[in-house]
């Protein structure tokens, strides 16, 4: 059967795999964003602490994704746990780096003005610094999401959820009539999900970033 016939006959399973893939990436991005922003907030005031945080999270990216998941399997087993841990760790670097850059880039005069009207340090952070640092933080989230879309496919190695299962099954059955269709369906599905997520981030940016800051 050709590719379109394959999609028509397997559309229900493809939609299920796509939903699982998107759900895994989304949930891991939420966790990575919370952790990454907290690390950025804790380290941006100190040059050495910020550099250490960036170095630590960038070191994680030097570990091949297949090796990372392989190392996690003996510790947490197969399935969702190694997928969630690996994706969350891989998603940290762009968020941490952009959070530090964004917070350090806030105009000191604005912080001084907030201090002058009696804002506490926490209030300054939540009402002045983080809103102004949001554009680069959102950019970091977008970069992380695109990166995790591809890495999530490797999770199929550990029986993880998502479209990677199609790709692995196709590769394992090369020569069979549907092998190429499986690989192509999984790959195109990941590309479509990545584009949809990126479009959603563009919309979020337009809704949450004031026009003056965008300019």
From TrEMBL:
ABC transmembrane type-1 domain ranges (all copies): 18-201
Gene3D superfamilies: MetI-like (1.10.3720.10)
InterPro entries: ABC_transp_perm/SBD, MetI-like, MetI-like_sf
Keyword Transmembrane helix: yes
Endpoints of the signal sequence: none
Entry annotated with the keyword Transmembrane helix: yes
Protein name, entry field: ABC transporter permease
Species, as recorded: Streptomyces flavalbus
